[in-house]
Amino acid sequence: MAMNENTAQTFQPIAARKAPTATEGPVAWVRINLFGDWTTALMTLLVGAVLLWMLPQVLSWAVFRAAWAPDYEACRVDGVGACWGVVAEKYRIIVLGRYPFEEQWRPVVATSLLLFMLVGSCTRAFWKLWVLPAWVAALVIYFTLMYGNVLGLEKVETDRWGGLPLTILLASLSMMLAFPIAMVVALGRRSNLPAIRTVCTVYVELVRGVPLISVLFMASFMFPLFMPVGFSIDVLVRVIIGITLFAAAYMAEVIRGGLQAIPKGQIEAAATLGLSYWQTQRKIVLPQALAMVVPSIMNNFISLFKDTSLVTIVSLYELTGALSLALNSDANWRPFKIEGYLFIALIYFAFCFSMSRYSIWVEKQANKGRMR
Amino acid sequence: MAVPIIVFDKLNKWYGNNFHVLRDIDLQVALGERIVICGPSGSGKSTLIRCINRLEEHQEGRLVVDGVELTDDVKAVDDVRKKVGMVFQQFNLFPHLTVLENLTLSPMWVGKMPKKEAEAKAMAQLERVRIAEQAHKYPLQLSGGQQQRVAIARALCLTPKIMLFDEPTSALDPEMIKEVLDVMVEMADQGITMLCVTHEMGFAKAVANRVIFMDQGQIVEQNTPTEFFNNPQNERSKDFLSKILGH
């Protein structure tokens, strides 16, 4: 109530009070979000009922009636639910593909090292100059372990690499290589020099105009036709180059979107301070542009991670391909594909979900200056 | 007139083919002189001062800044930019860098100054604009007036001979205009050459040696502030003054 009591001489601030109804805390959350009005309440009850009806059935199939032992006879008994035995029996082929059985410790160690470097590089502690030589060393160790042919390690051709290690290798190497290319192409598309601008535009439009599967096909089958006789590049290398160039084109467009959002005043201020073109890009434009497009870039990374499953068409058996390989060759286990697919879906989800969580963290770090 | 530090000689500039934004500008600015430029919007005031550090290119005539003629020669432009500081209407601080990093950026990367030294210098400038306690905040955490004072300190870190102000108080809340003008008045007392586009007539009276009135890309009238405000010579200036002082 506004009381007009002619108190013009002194300003008396009103003491702060609590809000009349609570809007924070678990009880308030339930009240507002689940039973806000009668339609919301009705939907809550409806969805709740469906969940209550389905959950027991799902649990019964996946847990209570499931067969866990690697025994396909047990899975065929009537009334048995999920046959997780297929995972117990075939996990080594599903996860590691056609890599020679006796040597499978090598991809495990190599991929653990790669994952360690990847996860590490995502944290502040690794953002130092020594991370570059560390990466070179890690990649040398990685390929030595995987390929062998030295130090008494048996040689394993790249077409036998497979499963999860191959998925991780393809995705991470392509991402790492595509990122700098994408930055250069994005800057190139905004260059003042028409030649550079045209080259970058043509590249992006050409690559975006074809599906990844045909890029892989070309990399694998057409590219060797143009090479001199007796000269060949390993299929894995060709595929990595193909995925890299494909991903870089999409990423370049995302980064260009970020570049366009930087106000002209930022570049003018940098110019008046005497910064050169490259200094301006490196210190002012790219840090802000990249911070803005973190969610989209991560989106690209996640879809790239799953797109690697297309390399099956050029006979490289990454995680998805390895699953088909494991089950198609074995008539006893072939009926239990669903369980196999659920298993690799879980693996894909774990990776993609971590990437998405990480992206939220990076976003927070990058937008520090915007927080009040 | 003392030795001129800036010379405009029959300078002309167009935007595109048809928009003749600066027409036959002849202007000499003496070392240490403080000039206020005013005029209606679209009269070319901002474009005029932006030519001095070549944020805008002119097509005809000559422009010489501290003995260096501005041409397409990149080295000449770099040379001039080291001598000229600029403050913008929209502050244009770098939002992803702290206040201190905004100030040390150019000394460290352009001036190749060691970090310690650059920070000491930056802190001295922040003291000067009375905002040293905010050094580790990000620009967007500051008020508009504080941001503009940081922008002034950033320009001063280059120890420029000339300072350009492009409507430095136009984007500020009324309560904050004074703190920015106070800093600018102090700078004026220290003898730096200043060109300031502004409609703060009080500031012009207090600080300027000369007021320049522009309209339609031309310098219509220039005079001392007292003469200009009390006894404008041109009908156009009279009309303009009656509008901005009329209420």
List keywords for this structure.
heterodimer, A: MetI-like fold, B: 247 residues, alpha/beta, 6-stranded mixed β-sheet, 10 strands
Characterization of the model:
The complex is a heterodimer of chains A (372) and B (247). Chain A has a domain at 85-99 and 156-371: Orthogonal Bundle (MetI-like fold). With 372 residues, chain A is mostly helical. Chain A has helices at 26-34, 38-64, 72-76, 85-96, 105-121, 131-147, 163-189, 194-208, 212-222, 235-260, 264-272, 277-292, 294-307, 319-328, 337-366, and one strand at 317-318. Chain A has 15 helices and one strand. With 247 residues, chain B is an alpha/beta fold. Chain B contains nine helices and ten strands. In chain B, the strands form two sheets. In chain B, strands 6-7-8-3-9-10 form a six-stranded mixed sheet, sandwiched between helices. Chain B has a four-stranded antiparallel sheet with strand order 2-1-4-5, with helices on one face. In chain B, helix 3 packs across helix 4 (115-128). Chain B starts with a strand and ends with a helix. The model of chain B has no long low-confidence stretch (mean pLDDT 90). The chains are: A mainly alpha (372), B alpha/beta (247). At the A-B interface, helix 11 and helix 12 of A face helix 2, strand 6 and helix 3 of B.
